[in-house]
C-alpha cells in the first residue's frame, strides 16, 4: 500500500531559486531511492523551515528513506528533523482530485 511521508526541519536557507541551484544534485538523487514515486519540496523562509512531502510504494521504503534522510540531514548540521508516515484515504482523496492513484 502506498504511503505518504511528510518531513520538515528548521532551516535557515538558502530558499527559492538559490535553494534550487544548491540542491539540484540532491533532488536528482532522490529519484534513485528505493520506493520513491514523487516528492514535493516545501519551504518557508518566513518560518525558517524546509522539507518535503513524498509518495512511496510502501511503508518499508518510506521508513528506510526517513532513517537515511534524517541521518544525512543531521550530518549536514540540520537539527530537529521531524518525519511522519501516513496512510492515504483513497476514496476521499479521489473526491478531491488527488494525483495519487
From TrEMBL:
The record, for Gene3D superfamilies, names: 3.30.70.100
Which InterPro entries has this protein been placed in? Dimeric_a/b-barrel (IPR011008), YdhR (IPR014910)
Q: Name one Pfam family in it.
A: ydhR
What is the designated name of this protein? Monooxygenase
Originating organism: Thalassotalea piscium
Amino acid at each position: 500500500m502506498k504511503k505518504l511521508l511528510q518531513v520538515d526541519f528548521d532551516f535557515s536557507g538558502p530558499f527559492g531559486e538559490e535553494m534550487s541551484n544548491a540542491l539540484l544534485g540532491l533532488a536528482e538523487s532522490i529519484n534513485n531511492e528505493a520506493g520513491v514515486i514523487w516528492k514535493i519540496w516545501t519551504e518557508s523562509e518566513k518560518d525558517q523551515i524546509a522539507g518535503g512531502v513524498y509518495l512511496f510504494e510502501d511503508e518499508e521504503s518510506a521508513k528506510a528513506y526517513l532513517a537515511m534522510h534524517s541521518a544525512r540531514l543531521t550530518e549536514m548540521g540540520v537539527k530537529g528533523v521531524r518525519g511522519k508516515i501516513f496512510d492515504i484515504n483513497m476514496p476521499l482523496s479521489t473526491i478531491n482530485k488527488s494525483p495519487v492513484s
